[in-house]
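Morning. Coffee machine broken again, so started the prediction first thing and wrote up yesterday's gels while waiting. Chain of 171 residues, entered below exactly as on the submission form.
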Amino acid sequence: MRAKNLLRWPRAGFRLSWLEGQALSPPADGLVTPLSAALLGLILLLAAAIRLALIAHAPAFVLFGDSAEFYVTGQHLAQNGEFPLPLKRAPLYPLFLAGVAAALGPRLEVAALMQHILGLGTVVLTYLLGALTFGRVVGLLAAFGVAINGSLLLMEHTINAEALFTPLLLA
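Came back before lunch.
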């Protein structure tokens, strides 16, 4: 599919005219070069260091509302096989929490650690999407932004469904 078809917003009348006629394809020399791989590695090291510092100095926590309901449902599923989730809630995140609790233990810190690992995956997926769409430099800048974004870090550190759905949407 051509970029001009993907980037039109007909209702708003907005177009990225400078991209019209260009297909979304990887750069001629590939998405990853030795230099971009090294820089992405440094960004991932920074992201991991920030996440480890957060894990070491701040307790993971459950927010009221959706967060608590997802956590309780995941714990019930892991402990006794019950899945008391209302129909208005998406089932994937409680299933993720139940899998983490069954495999690694029912502690909040373990769930937060797994979500931080998903956050590192989000950094890599952001690079790939940025590099595929606008080039490696943009991909690296976007990955750096995701690596140090405070709201994403807090999202990963709380029991929050977006920690799972963000990398899934990027993939």
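The radius of gyration is 19 Å. Going to sketch it on the whiteboard this afternoon.
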